[in-house]
Design a protein that fits this description.
The chain is an alpha/beta fold. The chain contains 18 helices and 23 strands. A hairpin with a 6-residue loop joins strand 10 and strand 11. The longest helix is centred in the C-terminal third of the chain and has 23 residues. Its cofactor is Mg(2+).
Length: 555
């Protein structure tokens, strides 16, 4: 009991020191209420002070709450102060460009970042309203920013927010101009954040310059230049931004490109930080696109498209004669886009990640195009090849696509949607569909069936134990075939890759959520043009593989 009392006294003292430095009256009141609830609130208080949110290559991301282990004005002030200090230490010149989505606290966090920048003598350019993440990534390049900050938690739950950092050409180099940071920048910024003194001593300046709508118009103009101006445009599209910030920009881009304006799911059209119609604001989650499918059905749409809340990801839902409406996997959209660009004569480097399908590799090999494979994350994809050839396309299986790296050097759900629409409209003139084209690719290269085993946990030790188990007791066979290759990417990355002659499994913890993920792939040859049978065999094999891997991980 004495030890427990000592622990509570220590956390209470930490909380009191935090309260004395917290610039936000609302979060001070929130934390005071938790303190008043002691000793019953001790577990919650301990969690809030379990440690600071760590600034990594994904920036900051966490629940909106008072205390160092949450997203709040104090944490954002400290992060902004550390960032501008680091930028100055690197000799970086130019403005800091700041964007934000429509989540709770996003605008306030963006405005505080601008004040910290100007207080340090650096110009701050604030996007005019809540806008998609790719607009911020574009603005960093377009405006010559030394860096960019995007306040967003992407597709995380409503109670979360986040803080992503991009570098301009001066500090990011040619490959990293307008891209998310990579090591060692993340460690340098984290160290600078930890060195920030009392927040009352962080100078706050003017609110910065709020940019006009001409920036958004410029993004839209450049986005529409990604596709052929003379291509077919007869396509009916249903769309949802999932209560996020994508609708206005996407519909403007479709209109400027000459497509009919997509029909938008009415009760998901406007930004809403509560995300009231979905249990989880991620188009990949079960039920997230049910309203979109209903709209597509009622309007006779050729195609249905969803963005995630910050519109850097793009989900594509198609009508399948066999199964009704179904969402294409990220790997399917990725190879469709790559194939489309290749057929348009776009030459250069095509890239994806170690967890994506191996089909893109096969396509590039057959067509004599350079290919590279990176760790997960667009911060790596846009740096693929190390400059050996210009990147022209990159994708990750988690619905992220970069179809125009010279426009946005990050995943971009707006230009991806435009390019999918261009492909679908072209196929429609031939009486064909996206699924027809997938079947043609399967007939040429074999069925590359991918799926995922994903386990969300409350205790991160479950993930650590599972990774330890697969390393200590690696399966000797999968699907009755010997495992002929085992790669462990530690210490660079917490990833284990298993391969047989026809199967591949990549196991890793998620970088943004409390999840353990296993990415599964089986390659099934197509015999005598019978794609349907090959797909059925591959699907059965992947289902069996999922069970074997779940058992091996102890899930």
């Amino acid at each position: 009991m004495a030890a427990d009392t000592t622990d509570i006294d220590d956390i209470r003292e930490q909380a009191r020191r935090w309260l004395a430095d917290d610039p936000d009256p609302a979060s001070r009141d929130e934390l005071t209420a938790v303190l008043d609830g002691l000793p019953g609130s001790a577990p919650e208080l301990a969690d809030r002070f379990a440690g600071p949110l760590t600034f990594g290559t994904a920036g900051l991301r966490g629940p909106l709450r008072a205390g160092p282990n949450g997203m709040n004005l104090a944490v954002v002030t400290q992060a902004a102060a550390g960032l501008v200090t680091w930028l100055a230490a690197q000799g970086g010149t130019g403005p800091l460009v700041i964007g934000y989505d429509a989540r709770h606290g996003s605008r306030e966090f963006a405005e505080r970042t601008a004040q910290v920048a100007t207080g340090a003598g650096r110009p701050a350019l604030l996007l005019p309203r809540p806008l998609p993440t790719p607009v911020l990534a574009y603005a960093v390049r377009h405006l010559g920013g030394v860096a960019g900050v995007m306040v967003t938690a992407s597709h995380n739950p409503p109670q979360d927010n986040g803080y992503k950092v991009y570098l301009g050409a001066e500090l990011g180099g040619e490959l990293g101009a307008g891209a998310q940071i990579v090591p060692p920048a993340d460690a340098g910024i984290e160290a600078a954040i930890r060195s920030v003194g009392p927040l009352a001593q962080v100078p706050l300046g003017e609110p910065g310059q709020v940019l006009g709508d001409d920036l958004v118009a410029s993004y839209v103009e450049r986005a529409t230049a990604v596709i052929d101006p003379d291509g077919p445009r007869d396509l009916t599209v249903a769309y949802t931004p999932l209560h996020g910030v994508g609708a206005a920009v996407l519909t403007a881009a479709f209109a400027r490109a000459g497509f009919p304006t997509p029909g938008v799911v009415p009760d998901q059209a406007e930004p809403d930080p509560a995300f009231p119609t979905v249990s989880f604001p991620n188009p990949e989650e079960p039920g997230a696109v049910d309203r979109l499918i209903a709209l597509a059905d009622s309007t006779g749409a050729d195609l249905a498209i969803a963005n995630d809340p910050d519109a850097d990801r793009c989900a594509v839902v198609v009508r399948d004669d066999r199964d009704g409406w179904r969402m294409l996997r990220g790997d399917e959209v990725g190879v469709l886009l790559a194939d489309h660009l290749m057929r348009r004569g776009v030459t250069g480097l095509y890239a994806t990640t170690i967890v994506s399908s191996s089909l893109l590799r096969a396509m590039c090999a057959a067509r004599g195009l350079p290919y590279d494979e990176t760790l997960t994350g667009f911060k790596w994809i846009v740096r693929a090849g190390g400059g050996s050839a210009p990147l022209v396309f990159g994708y990750e299986e988690a619905l992220g696509y970069c179809v125009a790296p010279e426009h946005v050097r990050d995943k971009d759900g707006i230009t991806a949607a435009l390019t999918v629409a261009e492909l679908a409209a072209g196929l429609k003139t031939q009486g064909r569909t996206l699924t027809d084209r997938l079947d043609e690719l399967a007939a040429e290269f074999g069925v590359h069936h991918t799926d995922q085993l994903s386990a969300r946990v409350d205790d991160l030790r479950v993930i650590a134990d599972a990774m330890a188990r697969i390393r200590a007791d690696t399966p000797a066979t999968l699907l009755g075939q010997p495992v002929d290759s085992v790669r462990d990417l530690l210490p660079e990355s917490d990833v284990v890759i298993l391969r047989t002659a026809v199967a591949r499994v990549v196991i890793r913890p998620s970088g943004t959520e409390p999840k353990l993920k296993a990415y599964l792939e089986v390659v099934e040859p197509v015999v005598d043009g019978d794609v349907r049978t090959a797909r059925s065999s591959a699907a059965s094999a992947v289902a069996a593989l999922r069970g074997e891997i779940a058992a091996a991980l102890g899930l």
